[in-house]
Amino acid sequence: MCPWPRIQGAMLDEHSLQVTYRFDRGEPRGPHKKGATWAGRGDCIDCNACVVACPMGIDIRNGPQLECINCGLCIDACDEIMLKVERPKGLIAYDTDAAVAARSKGDKAVYRLVRPRTLYYAAALAFVSGLMVWGLMTRSPMDVHVLRDRNPTFVRMQDGDIRNGYTLKIANRTFQPMQAHIAFEGVAGASLKTPGMDATSGALSVTVEPNQIRAVRVLVTAPADGLLHANMPAAFVVRAGDADQSIETTFLSGAANTR
Ligand code: SF4
Ligand code: SF4
Question: Is residue 155 within 8 Å of residue 254, measured between CB atoms?
Fold first, then answer.
């Protein structure tokens, strides 16, 4: 499912440096006996060491292939063989199709590293890198998600008050402990409570460790008299230092405004 080979195939042209079998030097290929002449034949001794070494199981001598991940293992395998048969290394090497084709015709290989395609890619890379740096520099030091309880959606307390349960996931993207203050807006008289802390009508304070996400269970209780609708729009407002985030949610009360 990896899309990289398709992308790589679309990006390359005949002047791209890639793992290449230099057929101008390797052909005609064939087995070689020690002491035999190299005249009239290529350097490839058809040993298949490059095919055996390839993790993708391809034969690079058939030309550039989409499956090639440019790992270079075939280069090392072939260089070892070239050393053993006392021929120059680099029968498989980083080269361009245009250079191999030129040498095959007896022309001098020309390498064009700067061309419209490489300039366009460099510009695109600089643009994307700039976007990433800008994103990193301007990202919020805090991220908050709210999940409301679904079962039950609300609880009617003994005194008639209505309670809704939520789980807040607060991410601290800094390298310092973060003190987050959680407030609830939109429902008159609401008080907040989290396990281990007393209920408060103000903001709850929790500490989130550096580079951690903390799940905070928050129970919001409101007097039924103040609930005008069965489904009240509300919001959690979380503040930490200069950062603040407001996350919309709902406060459910079923048959509201009745005790
Ligand atoms: S570079 Fe790697 S994947 Fe490509 S042909 Fe050589 S060994 Fe195979
Ligand atoms: S390892 Fe080198 S010599 Fe052996 S088959 Fe591959 S290209 Fe030819």
Answer: no
pLDDT beyond 80 at 199: no
Could you give the dihedral angle defined by the CA atoms of residues 234, 236, 237 and 239, in that order, rounded to the nearest 10 degrees? 170
Residue 33 has pLDDT above 60, yes or no: yes
pLDDT range class, residue 255, cuts 50, 70, 90: low
Q: What does the radius of gyration of the chain's CA atoms come to, in whole angstroms?
A: 34
Q: What is the pLDDT of residues 151-163, one digit of tens each?
A: 899 999 999 899 9
Name residues contacting ligand 2 (CB within 6 A). 21, 26, 44-50, 61, 77-78, 81, 91-92
- Structural domain boundaries in the chain: 4-132, 142-252
In words, the CATH class of domain 142-252 is mainly beta
Expressed in angstroms and rounded, the spacing between residue 238 Cα and the centre of ligand 1 is 52
Distance 3 CA to ligand 2 centre (A): 29
